[in-house]
Amino acid sequence: MGIKNSFPALLLLLIVSTGERTFAQPGDMRTWRALFEKPFDKIHAANRFLWDAICQKPPSEVKGIIHALDDDKKVNNSDKTSARMSLLKSMYCRVYDSLYDNEGWEYWGNRSVSGARNTEDDYIMQGCCLFLGDAYLRMNNYDTAIFYLLKTVELSEKLGYNEDFIVANKIAVSNALYRTQNYRQCINFCVSNYDIESNLVPITVMSAYNNAGLSYLELNNPDSAIYYFNKGQAYAARKKWGVWEGIMLGNMGMALHQKGEDDKAIIYWQRNYDSSFKYKEWGNAASTLAYISEYEFNHGRQAQAISHLQLATAADYSDRAPDPQRRILIYKVKSYCYRKLNRHDSADYFLDEHYRILDSVHQVISRNKFNWLSFAWRLKKVITNIIF
Which residues contact 211 (CB under 8 A, 6 or more apart)? Predict the structure, then answer.
């Protein structure tokens, strides 16, 4: 449950439907040159058209195309195109976890930002901030991610991007806002009168409903949370997206738990667990099992509860995207159960581990919340509906 991180990148949130496209073979440099030099169209960030075309090729071929563009004097003939080439190299290094000319994605990303700033090209700067914001967010570097993601929203409004692009930008930012406990701001970026279901891709829609619901849950407003989880579950069901339907059902279980309605919540938790097991979403399974274990323990099934907690721990450690909040939950439930069993040494151990991780998370979030205000002040103009 919670924010799901198994998608390749948050940049996918910002791809809008543009219909079928075909591209020439890699040897036709005129095609790649045309895509590289594609002017601002109010839909695609800098280099987005080109990257969508070449990233389908084998990694060695992608690098060859970038090298060819870099050597093409018709392309690399100005400071602006040099900035765009740096962004393209940064994209390559980030996606393929590789180096380009012995430098990584951060180096080329910073080069691109510097070039965009020197040439006062907001279009290139917006593309840089979008890419870097996503990259830092995936590294859990929320401090830096929020700065770049807020900047890309500001620039997309300034440049006059289409509304669907701007709304999708805001939803992308909401992931960082939720992670840094800026819950009201997160809701403001997710909720609007815009018809997201008709105009945005499914992952964007699911992120908006999920982030809004989770934020309301953190603000102790379970009824509003359930409203958005219900919308997300219904949308996922229409799209036949089973993994997300299960996530939304699990989140509804959390909201019902907050309302003290565990007998209703257990039904949703069980459906979420079945879905997580089916789709091998081990992180989700771990969180759900923790809640199920607490319910079982409180209803006289202590041995089964302890067994499920052991499974939850194993699922948590097997997840490739570890989440400290998930481990905090598991340790809290373990401490509670062992205390009730008079196994105080085990209870104290897991309670200490619970608070150790919790303190670490709070320190990071506190630092990020401070910098969120600092960065917003530096930007001078972000979004009018942000409440400081």
Answer: 3, 171, 174, 175, 177, 178, 186, 187, 190
Higher pLDDT, 386 or 351: 351
pTM: 0.78
User: 248, 208 in Cβ contact below 8 A?
Assistant: no
Q: Rounded to the nearest 5 degrees, what angle is found at the Cα of 331, between the Cα atoms of 325 and 335?
A: 145
Q: How far is CA 305 from CA 270, 276, 291, 297, 301, in A?
A: 14, 19, 10, 5, 6
Q: Which two tokens stand for residue 319?
A: 């997840």
CA distance 111 to 117: 10
Q: Are 181 and 143 in contact (CB under 8 A)?
A: no
pLDDT at 98: 87
Cα dist. 17→56, 68, 91 in Å? 17, 29, 21
Which two three-digit tokens encode residue 211? Answer: 């982030």
What is the average per-residue pLDDT within 14-27? 44
Does residue 295 lie within any of the structural domains? no
> Residue 94: inside a domain, yes or no?
yes
* Contact (CB, 8 A) for 56 and 48: no
Tokens coding 310 = 């052991």
CATH code where residue 137 lies: 1.25.40.10
Residue linked to tokens 């770049």: 148
- Residue 305 forms part of a structural domain: no
The beta strands (E) that lie in the chain are given as none
Q: Can you tell me the distance from the alpha carbon of 220 to that of 260, in angstroms, rounded to the nearest whole number?
A: 12
The reply to whether 271 falls in a domain is no
241: left (phi over 0), alpha (psi -120 to 50) or beta: beta
pLDDT in tens, 123-169: 999 999 999 999 998 887 887 888 899 999 999 999 999 999 999 99
How far from 366 is each of 252, 324, 371, CA to CA, in Å?
28, 16, 9
- Identify which has the larger pLDDT, 321 or 378: 321
Q: What's the structural domain count of the chain?
A: 1
Residue 76 belongs to domain spanning: 9-15+25-161
